[in-house]
Amino acid sequence: MTIESNNKMVYDHILVRYGELSTKGKNKKDFIRRLHQNMKNALRNYPALEFERTHDRMYILLNGVDPDEIAPIISRIFGISSFSYALKVNSEIEDIIAAAYHSASQSGAKTFKVEARRHYKLFGMISDEINRAVATEILKNTEMKVDVHHPELRIMIEVRQFETYIMTNKLLGAGGYPVGVGGKSMVMLSGGIDSPVAAYLMMKRGITVECIHYASPPYTSPRAQQKVVDLAKILAAYQGHIRIHVIPFTELQLAIYKHADESYCITLMRRMMYRIAERLAQRQNCLAIVNGESIGQVASQTLESMNVINETVTMPVIRPVVTMDKLEIIALSEKIGTYETSIQPFEDCCTIFTPKNPVTHPVSRKAAAFEQKFDYDALIEDCLNKIEIIDVYPNQKNNTEEDLF
After folding, report:
1. Which has the least CB within 10 A, 21, 141, 184, 304?
2. Is 301 annotated as a binding residue?
3. Strands in 160-308 per DSSP E
4. What is the rounded radius of gyration, in angstroms, for the C-alpha atoms of the chain?
5. What residue ranges define each of the domains in the chain, with the CATH number in brackets?
6. Per the annotation, does 188 bind a ligand?
7. What confidence tens digit (pLDDT) does each residue in 337-348 have?
8. 292 among the known binding-site residues?
9. pLDDT of residue 221
10. Which of 93, 67, 92 has the alpha carbon at shortest distance from 15?
11. Known binder of ligand: residue 11?
12. What gap in Å lies between CA 28 and CA 32, rounded to an integer?
């Protein structure tokens, strides 16, 4: 038991609870192994930390590291339901009572509740007896009162065979599955509000993401591309590392506007983007294309448009925000920290080349007819041959950090 002489509680562990991993049956071990590796990667700057995993918990031995310093990092790691600062003591009732009493006496709370859980069923007291023993000590030696419904302080006790963990807080984790357990996808990252949210939602389901961005210099500025890099840096906090493939799209866009009716230009641009994304995804061993399309939000996102655009690829296209309205997407972008960057006024290639009256109910036959007027396949290959690759990391100052995942 680690209690300083000045009566300040010193937590020596962080106890991590799994989220949906508990439902994974025979695959659970693989998911826990991936979460363990992701935790170590995310906390790589704290070499003093030690990790231990079990079938239902993970324990981080702090070795003097301030838990407040690493809590924000842990809160962004997918696969974690919640976590708590913990004090590890021997599984002896005297040690448990002493640590729990000290936690209560230093809390400043007026009401409390004890919640004991016996993972080791052969412990000499049942959970209710532990609760009563701890509560009696606190009631005898403090002015605190028991409140089982709305306590100011919850003292959580997890009893195992050789050690017991005393906790007084529960912090929410990011939920979902550990990134990397579900394969890899190619996210069309535009720099707007929607696509970063789509990338976040994919990572939450355990999917590693790479990103593709279409740039049209000199019509789009370097600041527009930098905005995408900045968004990827924010998202990288949830994954550890993100690779961006920047596609030089200018020549292909100009060819579309030269050979097609203006009303069909956005439809054709999206068809070309899908073709490029699929070829790149196959090259990078990605299993799906992901974008931030939401039904009815713009002309290219009606069901008719999606159908005509989608027919150019055979790979699955996933749209995580497809049924969300704009306010819901904005709220989530604010939560994950991308909103302020997304609204910076640097236009992407779709915005700059938007026609005055884009078709909302395109016909596949007409789109194909326009495409037959120029050699788009050669232009696509040229785009792929001129890709710029940018690797980004959380809070990155340069691109020399080693790949994490």
Report:
1. 141
2. yes
3. 163-167, 171-175, 184-188, 208-215, 242-248, 289-290
4. 27
5. 13-172 (3.30.2130.30), 184-392 (3.40.50.620)
6. yes
7. 999 999 988 766
8. yes
9. 81
10. 67
11. no
12. 6
